[in-house]
Design a protein that fits this description.
The protein has one domain. It has 14 helices and no strands. It has helices spanning 20-52, 76-90, 92-109, 120-131, 141-150, 155-167, 170-179, 182-203, 225-264, 276-288, 295-305, 310-319, 325-334, 337-361.
């Protein structure tokens, strides 16, 4: 049973077609937020990592850089605290974007009459196309996904957006094909396409439609620009609270859980010969960890360069970064825990399969 979206007592009248001024303002708001993030931060960072090529580095357990150094000799509690702070610092820009952009998307979509089609597969395709340019990691896309679902978009569109944003971004795909053997890169792409275009329609087939909208704009028959600005900003503020009140606390919890797991799991075993149990454990842990954009490619490449067996490398590449404890918890609270559990299990299974297939190649 899908989680029902609670309305905020703002009823959209039948005059939605007259909301063009509110729609223009909402689109402008989305464009400003997105352009600042994409131009000033995200795409320059991704392109810089692409050009780093084989010199790509990651100094943190869950991040490319560190605010606090983490020494294995430190007590576990201190290591977890420092890794959590490092994660929060590394994700501050992406999370700020998502907490601002998600409500803006909700505000805009609430002015539209249709936000889905009658075809699960077309909804999935629309979600995938929307997710590719977003360029946010599986963590940062979660608050955006909550806003999209609250607007009335289908579960399949929301999930496809969540998976496509970190995994089908063109820069990240280019990094994958540059740094890894062709068969490994194709294996990674194949698992992503399976997850989006096979798993998503099947997993959402039994979900009840979310017809309610969390926050909509009550548009009069003839709104002025002043009224449109006031109503749009009011709707945006309420949409922001709807997204923030669930996604922000879960973010803090997920950061701490990810830090705990990455600090207690021994990494020395990756240097040994690949085993079936090892592949399973790598897939289970990697699909859980909340990592930033392109971190999966970086860590998998660094592991490969250090001589880690290719089955482990493939399992990491096909599981790390496409879901996480944070994104799955938001899916659970927003869509359903059944879908969240299926998503995690499917990603783990695909990672295990990738590891087993790669094991047969070496």
């Amino acid at each position: 049973m899908a989680a029902q979206v609670s309305a905020l007592n703002l009823d959209l009248s039948e005059s939605r077609s007259t909301a063009w001024r509110s729609r223009v303002i909402a689109v402008t708001l989305m464009a400003i937020i997105a352009s600042i993030f994409w131009i000033d931060s995200r795409y320059p960072a991704l392109i810089k990592r692409y050009h780093a090529g084989t010199n790509l580095k990651a100094t943190g357990a869950l991040t490319f850089g560190q605010v606090y150094q983490v020494d294995p000799a430190m007590p576990l509690s201190r290591r977890v605290y420092r890794t959590t702070v490092n994660w929060l610092d590394a994700n501050r820009i992406g999370m700020t974007f998502s907490f601002l952009f998600g409500p803006a998307a909700l505000t805009f979509l609430s002015t539209l009459r249709r936000r889905r089609t009658n075809s699960r597969y077309l909804n999935t395709l629309l979600g995938a196309v929307s997710g590719v340019p977003l360029a946010v990691c599986t963590n940062c896309v979660a608050p955006i996904a909550r806003g999209l679902y609250a607007s009335g978009m289908s579960a399949e569109s929301v999930l496809a957006t969540m998976f496509a944003s970190p995994a089908l971004n063109l820069v990240v795909l280019a990094m994958t094909f540059v740094l890894f053997p062709l068969q490994i890169a194709l294996l990674k792409l194949g698992t992503v396409l399976f997850l989006i275009f096979v798993f998503v329609p099947l997993a959402t087939a039994r979900e009840v439609g979310n017809e309610q909208i969390a926050c909509v704009i009550d548009v009069p028959a003839a709104e002025t620009w002043t009224q449109a600005v006031t109503r749009t900003l009011t709707s945006y503020a309420k949409s922001f609270w709807y997204v923030f009140r669930v996604a922000f606390p879960l973010m803090i919890v997920a950061a701490a859980l990810g830090a705990l797991v990455v600090e207690i799991v021994p990494q020395q075993g990756l240097g040994t010969q690949a085993t079936a149990i090892g592949i399973i454990l790598v897939a289970i842990v990697s699909a859980f960890l909340p990592v930033p954009m392109a971190f999966d490619v970086a860590i998998a490449y660094i592991a490969m360069a250090k001589g880690v067996p290719m089955p482990y490398v493939a399992a990491i590449l096909c599981t790390l970064g496409i879901v996480s404890v944070y994104s799955l918890s938001v899916v659970g609270k927003t869509i359903s825990w059944r879908v969240a559990a299926y998503a995690y299990g499917t990603v783990v299974a695909l990672g295990i399969l990738a590891g087993v297939i790669t094991r047969g190649w070496v």
